[in-house]
């Protein structure tokens, strides 16, 4: 996939993830600094946990200013223009889904670079896609949303299985990456449009 | 200690720790994916925090599939057969105690390999034994159980002190390991049978 | 700055941070072991997260016994003499502020040693100063205090900006360190004396 498009999607995903944190922090009426922290944690949490598990340190977002500046800008925009940004919820949902797909694939590929097995790579991809939201919810004192609602982590896992399935066929990795991202986005779109979610577990 | 017995105890401990997470997640009515995540975090949380503190990365469970598959199987079994497994609560308690003993000793020995002091090794052993449960409770939005109930971490600490005491005597490390594990199991059994717990602290 | 003074301030900061954890744990009526854990996490949490992000492992407090012993003593003192220690709240506030200033500067300097940018160093300094309190609040099932109350993290950020501003002037680093710490302490003192805090954010 073209580096330029990848950068746009990653930036869009970071912004969408960050905004979901900023809005939730504002609903809990945190002060502006609290909003900035939650924006940060939501946007970089998944990749940070992944990097610390693998031992790839300093973790990615420490290595240059661009991610930090994008997130800072996102938080400030949410604080100033929250009302207007919320009207863009469809755009946000689109980028959030794209971000989820891209972050999952990035996590899988970092796992492969570290020489880990397919199963573990899928776990790392899911961690990258989902743990930012988990940390956001823990800091805001909620049970993580992804444990309770909608197909979310399940989309990462399904995408990961597809990725390694396609890898067996000898298709170029660039294509596999694209197909996996599109697949994850489509699962999300269908799940949200048709309100599909996993049933709650019972302790019969 | 015989490698084969160690493997059985470690597997039993992982399953028992995982089940405690799965059952608590099901009580909170998480969806199946949430149950799987909580099962994972409870079973590998302590060792993961320990490995990240020492810098032994990629952390242990990333390095092959066996731990991940055991935990996945545990979560699925809990989801399907929860009602029946709960009737095995005595077996579960036995493995949970054995797991606590073994995980504590593993943590101590990893600390020694990293050249750390006895005091710090005891802290790492306690972390290995207890932090899976702490993370489980944080994710499920409870104050960690071990801070409030029963002799649990205290058993790890007492075991750790015994371990280093015996080390002074020149007894073979294999024997010390076994004695420490048995000692931790016995403390747990007595504490639970006689409902012994530490008193709550007051802020007079 | 003189090594001896630095050691006194760092020890004082560790004790003050630890006590804030111990008191809050006692208010929640944890058992003594729970109080010790929360004391530990509050005192070393910020530096531990920083070290794990940078990959400087084993993390600092593992490398010798002194920090662990100081914190253990702090927790035991809180449990035994809580009533009397609370009367020292002004002394505690002074050390807490000094600790915040010192921990921030230590975080900045560790970031520089790792070759990271100024912006990222300020983020690491703020993490070092504040994340112990964040982890304390997460474990005790509260929304972190610093997201809701008083100028706290803001003081770290302002101090970090001053630090790098002064670095441009060619002043000796020893002086810059001292000035930054004093500046952070003064911000805290003014904020608390005049009850200055950031306004809550609204999601208009």
Subunit organisation of the chains: homotrimer
N-to-C SSE string of chain A, H for helix and E for strand = HHHHHHH
Largest sheet of chain A: none
Radius of gyration of chain A: 17 Å
Structural class of chain A: mainly alpha
Largest interface: A-C, 34 and 33 residues
The rounded distance between the terminal residues' Cα atoms of chain A is 48 Å
Number of helices of chain A: 7
Shape of chain A: globular
Percentage beta strand of chain A:
under 5%
The amount of helix of chain A comes to over 70%
Number of domains of chain A: 1
The low-confidence runs of chain A, each spanning 5 or more residues with pLDDT under 50, are: none
Number of strands of chain A: 0
Mean pLDDT of chain A: 87
């Amino acid at each position: 996939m073209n580096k330029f498009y990848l950068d746009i999607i990653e930036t869009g995903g970071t912004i969408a993830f960050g905004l979901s944190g900023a809005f939730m922090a504002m609903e809990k009426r945190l002060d502006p600094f609290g909003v900035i922290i939650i924006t940060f944690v939501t946007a970089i949490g998944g990749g940070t946990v992944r990097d610390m598990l693998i031992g790839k340190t300093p973790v990615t977002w420490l290595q240059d200013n661009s991610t930090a500046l994008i997130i800072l800008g996102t938080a400030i925009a949410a604080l100033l223009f929250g009302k207007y940004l919320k009207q863009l919820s469809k755009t946000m949902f689109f980028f959030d889904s794209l971000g989820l797909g891209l972050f999952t694939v990035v996590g899988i590929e970092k796992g492969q670079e570290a020489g880990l097995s397919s199963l573990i790579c899928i776990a790392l991809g899911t961690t990258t896609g989902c743990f930012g939201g988990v940390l956001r919810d823990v800091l805001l004192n909620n049970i993580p949303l992804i444990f309770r609602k909608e197909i979310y982590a399940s989309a990462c896992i399904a995408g990961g299985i597809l990725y390694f399935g396609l890898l067996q066929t000898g298709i170029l990795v660039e294509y596999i990456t694209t197909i996996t991202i599109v697949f994850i986005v489509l699962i999300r779109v269908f799940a949200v449009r048709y309100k599909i979610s996993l049933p709650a577990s019972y302790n019969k």
